[in-house]
What does this fold into?
Amino acid sequence: MPSPKLLVIGGVAAGASCAARARRLCENAEITIIERGPDVSFANCGLPYFIGGEISARDVLAVQTPASLKSLLNLDVQTRCEAIRIDRSNKRVEIRHLENGSTEWQSYDKLMLAPGASPLRPDLPGINDPRIFTLRNLEDMDHIVTATDTGMRAVVVGAGFIGLEMAEQLQRKGLSVQLVELQKQVMPPLDAPMTALLESELRRHNIAITLGDGIAHFEPCTDFVRCYLTSGKVLEADLVVLSIGVKPDSELARAAGLNLGPRGHIVVDEFQRTSDPDIYAAGDAVETTDRVMGDKTVVPMGGPANRQGRVAADHIFMPDKARPYPGSLGTAIVRAFDVAAGITGWSEKRLNAAKRPYEAVTVNDHQHATYYPGAKPLTLKILWEPESGRLLGAQASGFEGIDKRLDVLATAIIAGMTVEDLCHLELAYAPPFGAAKDAINLAGFAACNRRDALVNDTTVLPDDPTVQIVDVRPKPLSDAFPAPCKVINIPFPTLRANLDKLDRNRPVLTLCAFGKMSYFAARVLAQHGFTVSCFSGGLKANVDPRSPAKMPTP
Amino acid sequence: MPSPKLLVIGGVAAGASCAARARRLCENAEITIIERGPDVSFANCGLPYFIGGEISARDVLAVQTPASLKSLLNLDVQTRCEAIRIDRSNKRVEIRHLENGSTEWQSYDKLMLAPGASPLRPDLPGINDPRIFTLRNLEDMDHIVTATDTGMRAVVVGAGFIGLEMAEQLQRKGLSVQLVELQKQVMPPLDAPMTALLESELRRHNIAITLGDGIAHFEPCTDFVRCYLTSGKVLEADLVVLSIGVKPDSELARAAGLNLGPRGHIVVDEFQRTSDPDIYAAGDAVETTDRVMGDKTVVPMGGPANRQGRVAADHIFMPDKARPYPGSLGTAIVRAFDVAAGITGWSEKRLNAAKRPYEAVTVNDHQHATYYPGAKPLTLKILWEPESGRLLGAQASGFEGIDKRLDVLATAIIAGMTVEDLCHLELAYAPPFGAAKDAINLAGFAACNRRDALVNDTTVLPDDPTVQIVDVRPKPLSDAFPAPCKVINIPFPTLRANLDKLDRNRPVLTLCAFGKMSYFAARVLAQHGFTVSCFSGGLKANVDPRSPAKMPTP
It folds into this structure.
């Protein structure tokens, strides 16, 4: 085989992975990486943690350098170079050297586009003030670090993954932090109830949160920037971090006539090939296939980018053995102080927006056996297809073991497992690690109980005044954390002896702290002839989530 | 429906789960639990942790009491009662009250046998000395606690799950601990190389370990017990804990003529029914189906017991909706001090013993991104079916995130996933939790690289003196932790420039610390025409596992 030439545009996740795999598959290929920025293959997910000081050495973020990629992989890495035009008919790319403005053409046999995505900077008055930052690379990070050396007041706009990490790290560095989010919850990819713990943890660390509000415009002042919100609220900031989303850097592809998706992402096939068979694309700038529904989707995250880059290299250098990229799921997690929360697959709001049928349950449990020291509460929500029982998505929130449950459920979703399959997952159990019945098993049990019509559960308190709401918590708990409605308190252990306190001709709703005792109570009442439903997931919002209550074994 | 009577023999994991589920399904059933011991539904997996003081309150281990089961579930719990005979034709069981020796018959409509399994006490001279303990219940635990109040020297016989937990906890309590194991490794369910870290962690905490040796007999002395090992070695102990396995308590079932398996376990169908359709059985005393191979097997653990009890209750009280128990996988984990190790599915030695074809790879990685503080090494081994690529088993060892990897791989095995599927599991990634390519993805990559003939890897160093062994580690590392063989040191970044140092007519083996650089080197050499193999998994045994070396991204 003559020396093939692979030209890679973009040297971070997808581009660097593609080039590294390409070298292992083809020692004699000429492999060049063109990178606009000064750094390649840096740890972009680590940037917020350096700003807050949790990562103290900047050089650990520069995972590889042009020199190390040369010595390890014999790659030719050209930084501060921008690809400005693709000449597809002559298979060459025009490159501009950003340091001196000179341009040159570089030829390719195969071209990989891994341009990534840019943080959104909406065209608002005042947006160009130098104290308004976005965070994409080490240079952006350095600018924010410099701003935090003197600034004391930060406004973070957007409470998604980067926004929450930035809010945490700026607070950690000692700044006062205001967080603004357009939606009425933090962490918009999750369903609102699953973000309650995250929000309370942020507030506990004195992060001021404004929800359901957005930036109208900025007013640059001498010593600070004034942020005008659409509600009329005004915040003052020494620095502003915008983390409201990204847009694909697909102009080069568009200008070259490659097919783009409806939101401007590069369209690729299952081997990451664009509409030009000699041009591949991967990472945040491409459209991919949703692994749950099979629709086209966009998942701008590090894991998919790395694996897509690798698939492309396989297809270029060993096409007979390459296996397709199976699509993305959108598994994601965020940590804010002591709390973690995350999602995999589809959320309830996304299913509703797409008008797809689903069912959902939420269960409360702990990360490990409650009798072993350090048990902390954990909340798990699963969503499934009503007919087949196939899992569509899951969310988890809590203090420990959140990543573990998400990973197991991501694997289950990819495998096409049903809620019934969750009942009998056999997970690793010793008291420091889990429980004989893990929260994931419990979620499966709860889903199957609904399917078997053992319980009629609801997540809304009834308006109907004829419904008898029975709070089955112990009286002291019921008194200390009253339910937001009129209740009859009948602690569960006394329920069978007190059936005569309830009117059999009126419906009953049972509720408790975590949704377990109210289920037990609903089973008792249903079998005694009552029309009963159960308040799913419990009133835990009214219980201090940091002081886990002991729950009986199911 | 008239009031059906369910009689449950054994009130711990399987029996208590069955009774609790039965009550939720049938409010008017008469449900009685007969328990030989003084306690029901206690946390048997927590017993070692109370002995060591990690769990400080005894009452948290008594998860439920007869009184709480009465008030919560309206169960009739009879402790210190032993079932001594089943009269199947009259559907009744003879019960002996252990406190006064009186007997009575109790009838049943359905009978659940959940007798559990007893710790083995081999019939050796001296075995009946009261200072020789086993650990099954709270009474056993109390006796060991009393013995540790005065005893200073403990011998633990058997280095399986309970043995390691006991060794750790007795050391924690301040005793000097000797651990004796018949096999030549600790934690016999795992393959030996995967137990190296566990063994070094135990030794680091001054636990003396004797491997490949067993007890010949005991000699009770006035102040201590002398333990004679088959090797001739003699250990002195103030207390001895035997943890060498269990045998099913299936005498009652045998006497009643129920079918038993080859090792005395009760044979059940997929709904936990014995050969008598009115008698069910669950837990440590039953045979079950291996979830990987479909063979009959025995998995005496808490998770399966709980879920089997539940399946039986479903089949008794809602037979039309009950779903079968799908079999057990044998997922298990143990923690010893800072180290955790575990297994799911089949090990290499078990596959070898059964003469089943398999392939295996071992990869070294960290629990999360290495640039985020606190990254610690982790080793993962996966085994798969050569033709199909289907996963057969997995093992993990390290400091953190071991339970997570085992749980994901247990789920993947249950789902019938292949090594190829592991490449594209989309796991939760943020720097504190994981990496863009998780260790599980890397294991999938490594397996597929072998399948695609990109690498010819081996786990044995060659005897053949013509093989050129190339150590590609940095020279200081190679000098400080020399390989156990003659090597040529060519640090990987200098390899391409030093190909002339190697003889192209002789085979090459590449090796490094973790198995990654040696793979890179093997790819370079293979493409330059060398016949090369790669030492899989690296020489990590020669690197201090507690000081993780930085590894480049793949």
